Amino acid sequence: GGTRPFGDVLAASPDHDEGGDGWSTDEATRFGRYARRLWDPLLACEKVVDQ
User: Fold this and answer.
1) pLDDT, tens digit, for every residue of 1-51?
2) What 3-state DSSP class applies to 43?
3) Do 37 and 22 form a contact (C-beta atoms < 8 A)?
4) Residue 27 has what pLDDT?
5) Backbone angles phi, psi at 38, to 5 degrees
6) Is 41 strand, coil or helix?
7) What is the pLDDT of residue 32?
8) Contact between 29 and 11 (Cβ < 8 Å)
9) Backbone phi, psi, residue 29, to 5°
10) C-alpha 36: how far from its chain's center?
11) CB 35: neighbour CB atoms within 10 A?
12) pTM of the full predicted structure?
């Protein structure tokens, strides 16, 4: 529990179970892996249209 500085959150290494299918292993931080796990599927469905 407790409060952690945001810099610590950004620097934390991934846990042992945050790899494999569905995880972007090219991300070196835990924050990066969670961000990619959230956003990659959404961005894969994005449709960009020039208007």
Assistant:
1) 799 999 999 999 999 999 999 999 999 999 999 999 999 999 999 999 998
2) helix
3) yes
4) 96
5) -75, -50
6) helix
7) 97
8) yes
9) -115, 155
10) 4
11) 13
12) 0.79
The whole-angstrom separation of Cα 34 and Cα 38 is 6
The overall longest dimension of the chain from CA atoms, in Å, is 48
Please work out, in degrees rounded to the nearest 5, the angle formed at the alpha carbon of residue 12 by the alpha carbons of 10 and 34: 70
Give the pLDDT of residue 30.
97
10, with CB counted inside 10 A (0-12, 13-18, 19+), is exposed
Please answer whether residues 4 and 19 qualify as being in contact, where contact means their C-beta atoms are separated by less than 8 angstroms: no
Six token digits for residue 18: 């945050």
Query: Residue 1 has what pLDDT?
Result: 76
